[in-house]
Each structure stands twice: as structure tokens, then as C-alpha cells.
Amino acid sequence: MSAPAQPTARPIPRIEPSTILWALVILGVVTMVPPADLWATIHHLRVPDTDDAMRLAEVRDLLSGQGWYDIIQHRFLPPAGVPSHWSRLVDAPIAGLILALTPLAGRSLAEGLAAVLWPLLLFGLFCGVLHRGVRTQFGSRAAVLALIVATQTFGVTIQFAAGRVDHHNVQIITMIGLAFCMIRGGVRSGLIGGGLAALSLAIGLEGLPSITAAALFLMGDWCLRGRPALPLLAGFGLGLGLAAPVLFVAQTGPEHWTTTRCDALSPPWLWLALGGLLLTVCAVAAGERLASVRARVTLAGLLGVILLAGFAVAFPVCLGGPFPDMTPLVRDHWLLTVNEMASLPKLVARGQWEALVFYPVVLFATAVATGMAWRGERRRAWAVTALFLWPGLILGLFQFRGLYIASGFVPLVAGAVLDRALRSDAGRTELPRWGVALLGGCLVSTLWMAPAVVAETLMPTARTAPDPAGAIACRSEAALAPLETLPAGTVLAPIFMGPAILLHTPHAVVAAPYHRAIPGLTAAIEGLGGTQADLEQVLTRFGVRYLVACPARPADDLQPESAFATRLAEGTARSGRLERLDLPGPLKVWRVVPDPLRAGGDRAG
H-type helices in 185-327, by residue range? Predict the structure, then answer.
């Protein structure tokens, strides 16, 4: 009698490595934005930064009927207002989202949903550009690894967080798109890359150093290689030279076409963009007459001298940078106190150890890209990547915001390095497999949280930077809600509160953190940081109706003793011109009494 047949064991399903990697991408995206932040942005219009609040205020004005070419924020330093240096090209899609969502959710909720959806949609576009470019150069696995690292790169995720409606995220996308166009080559890629460069300039000038480096690279490549490099240079020159004026006209009223603006796309920067178009026309027209390196270098040098000399003669005011009108007082007590303008030594000196999650990954990425361009495979891809990383790293040492665009290239480098660590031939490279994996780990900024936390724990007294929690609390919707119940008027408040007041209340403001409003910045610094006479002079000069203080973030003292406004907030001083209003919340609010006969002296309370 035969033994019964044993049941056949079912094979354990094999999970493909690519499935695991894509699952990690989904996990990274899902956990990138905390649910509490989504809720706060949707229901309370909480945004990460003052610039996001100002952007939404601009969008709201546009939807309320303000003209397309009217870029003045009329509630900022009224009655004249302050012209914005931002682009309507970013206002428009956000406004479109709000219009589309309003019938479904109502206006208030539509604004919050748009503030969440816009950066998430942009992150999807960034991931699409990143995946396609890395896959073409380094393979599918490297592309997926790059996406995973993108969700862990703080320099990227903070620019695509809920409520991040500022323009830096769009500039990251345009610059990484330009880089992939330069790597691919050809007239079509050049045209697209030039158009992306023009779009970046139209949105803001933060990408100017990267675009300048790209233009010099393309010109140098043509000087050295001649005809093979001409299609890409020609396409870039045509794309930039034609698109920049079109975008300028699209967002600038005719009355301002001849106005020089050092901080936005205007005649000085159009002059340089058209110079690229001129070089392209000359290079194509000359043809074989530029067969030698010497001839090409001579032409490029001659046109370069003409461009720079013309710029210096026609627009000398812009030779000193984008802030030609800034006074030392405003520079010292506002500009240099802003985190994005802080240098690395200053961040370290103030104990802001969170810088460790931003700087090291850009440094390692720059070193890897440079080394691979020097001696590795796919040298052009690595050279172009290094080209965009170096300006960001160098500028980032002096201004934190220099890291914004460079951070977008970190996932590209990390994806390629981690893919090499997983390859079967990884051990036959200069570094052993574990060394390549360790290098890849150094490119993941979340891993740098560990030393940042250790430093914060071991050296808590080293932190001298102001606690951001106090400022965040003072500009929240809940803190500003009591102000909304007051009759509309002009408010003198700390500079950082200006955009939030414009967004959450009907009031006008004297000051907000923008360099085109030097009188307002000066008034806030002197009024809130000076004597009683300084404050009362500002109240009178700007027709201020309400004085608002954030006790958690007093103004800088401009004299040895505490500022009068600070003592008001502490309750140790009083003024007959200021009537204290009993409002709930963290803010201290006074109504300005217009009758000068009621003015009293500074006395102890």
C-alpha cells in the first residue's frame, strides 16, 4: 500500500527589489508633510514663511480685481503702497486653483486647499523631471533611489512643504530642468533650457548665478569643441534671448518697460540675455570662419567685453547688487538678522545646529560630482551637475539661501552613488562597496539629524538665535484674529508680522520684510527700537492707528536702555498717545490717540 502524497508547499511570493524601492518612495512622499501641518494650512491658512503669506495676499488682491500689471501692495505703506518684485506668473496658477476649488469648498477653504495643493503639485513635477533625467543618465534604479533621497533632503522638502507658495520651488525645477537639457545636448534641448532659464529670471533673480555659470559653460564648450557644441549653445541663446523679453512684457506694464530694477527681470538683465542671442547669431552666421579655437575665443571675449561694458555704463546702479538703496541701519537690524541671509559661520556661532542637515549634503554632493567629472564615467553629466552645485555651495557659505537651488541636485548625486553601491561590480571601484554605501548615506540629510541633535543636547547654551516659536505664535491666525475685529487702520508692528497682518486682517501695515520698502523698515526699526520720541514721530508720520507688539520678539534696542516699545509691552512704561486695548492672545495692542494734547510722558507703570 503506497504512502499518501504529501501536499506541495506553495512557493513564497518573491517581491521584486523595484517594488520595495517604489514603496519607499510612496512612504517618503506620504510622510514628507505631517498631517497636522496639512490641517493647519487648509483650515487656518498657516504658512511656513512670511513670503508665503505675502504671496497669498497678492493672489487674494488679484482675485479681488487688482490689475494684472498692478503689482503694488496697496495696504503696505499706504497710501502710495509698495511695488512687489515678484512675478504674476506664480500668482496666476495659485489664483486659478482657488477659483477652481471655490465652488466645491467655499472661498476660505479653497485658499487653504490651494496652499497645500500647489507645492505638492510642484513636488510631483520636480520628481518627474528628476526621475526622467536620472534614469536617462544612470538607469531606472538610480532614478528611483533619487526620488527616495528627494523625500529625505531637507533643502528640498522645506521648499515643497504645505503652504510653501513662494517661488523658490519653481526655480529649483527650472534649474534642474536646465541641467538635464545641457547634459542631453542638441538644439531642442538648448531651446527648452534657454526658456527655463528665462522663466527662472522672470520669477526671481535667485537663479542668476546658476544661469550665468551655465552660459559660461556652454560658451566655453563651444570655444573648445566648435561645431559639435554649437547646436546646444545656439538653442540656449535663442531660447533665453527670445523668451526673456516675452515673459518680461507678459508681466510688466508698458509704463515700466524702461525702468531699471536690479532685483527683478528688467532692462539690465534683458541686456545680458539679448547678448546671448547676439553671440548665437554671430556664431551661426560665421560658420567655418570660426574653425579655430583662437577665433572662437576672440569672438566670445569681444562680445563679453561689449556686454559687460555696456552693462556698467547703462546700469551702474546694479553693479552693487540687488539692494542699492539699503541703508546701514536697515542692513544691520533687519537684513543680516534674517536666517536666509545668514552665513555658515554666523549660524554656527548662534548655535543653530540644524544647519547640519543642509550644508554637509551639498558639500558631499559637490565633491562627488566634481570627482566623477574629473575621472569617472558619464563625465558630462557629472560636470554639469557640479556646475550647478558649486555656485550654491559657495554662496551658501555667505548666505544660507544660496543652498536652495543646489539642494535640488543632491538627490541626483545620491541616486547615482547609492545605485553604484548596489551594483555587483561596486567592489571593483576605487572605494569598496561599504565605502560607496557610506558615501551615499552622507548624501541623505535626515541622517545628519543625529549629529545636529547631539550638538543641541551637549551645547544648549551655545544657542543664541531667537526662538522661532515666539514669532510663529505672534503671526498665527489665532493671534491675529482679535485684530480683525477692530476698524481697519494702519498698524505699526514688528517687521516679520507685516505679511501675516495683510493676510489675516483688513489692516494696512507700515513694515514688512521687503527691501523695496526702506522707509517702512526704517520706521519699524527706529520706532520700535528707539525712544518715546522716536516712536511718536513714526506714529504721526505714517498715520498709524494701532501699535502691536510681540513680547516674545522685541525689537533691537538702538540705545543703551531698553526701547520704549519694549517697556510698553512689559508694562513698565506708558504713553498718553497710546490707549491699551484688552484683547486676548499673545499680542499687546494699543490704539493711537490722535489728539496731541493728550500726549503724556514716559513714566513707570
Answer: 187-203, 208-225, 230-251, 267-286, 293-314
